User: Fold this.
Amino acid sequence: MYCSKCGALEDKVIDSRPSKDGKSIRRRRECVSCAFRYTTYEQIEQLELRVVKRDGRSEPFDKQKIISGMLKACEKRPITRSMVEDAVDSVVSALETGFERELPSRKIGAKIMEALHGLDEVAYIRYASVYRQFADLGEFIDEIQQLGARPKRSALQTELFKP
Assistant:
């Protein structure tokens, strides 16, 4: 690390602690040459995620699109914005750990539907009707019947046995 005062390369770390948000480390340093003290922040390098669409196009991952889609599905339902944002955070972290740099849009949609199923079944059906592009009323009814047959899992409940 270059000293901002004299340009020397040698320094020593005096103090190191997590920042307020917990996503970086704050370090107080002192230049060995001139004894000037300065602060640096260290954080994890984030890879740029890309979404591969159904037609093969690729575009940058946008968390805001997921939030807006889920908010539309949850409109006029007893779900707060913070509940949606928490669900989106869990979806994004699951996607980041499960894939490399490119995320298939179908996997993103499946994770979102899983999160919505835990939040609200009506919001789940709303999202599924758009995501799966229901062509007629029969597909809509089939999805509702399948939903009734599945047990509702709370978003807070951890899965003990994975199929």
About this structure: The chain has two domains: 11-43, 50-149. The chain has five helices and six strands.
